Amino acid sequence: MKDLILKAKNGLREFVEDEDGAGVIELVLIIVVLIGFVFLFKDKIGTLLNTVFSKINSQAESIYQ
Asked: What is the rounded distance in angstroms from the CA atom of residue 22 to the CA atom of residue 52?
C-alpha cells in the first residue's frame, strides 16, 4: 500500500513539474487577449481601416489618372 501511495505521489509531482504544455497555454492566453482587444475596439479599428484604405484608394486613383 505504501508503495502505491509513493508511486502516486511521484507521478503527481512529475505531472506538476512537467512544463511541456506551458508554451501552448501561454500562446492560447495571448490569442484570447488579442481577440478580446479586437472585440473591445472593433469600432475604432474599423474606422481606422476605412480611413487608411480610402487614402490608399484616393492616392492610387491620382497615380493612374
From this structure: 38
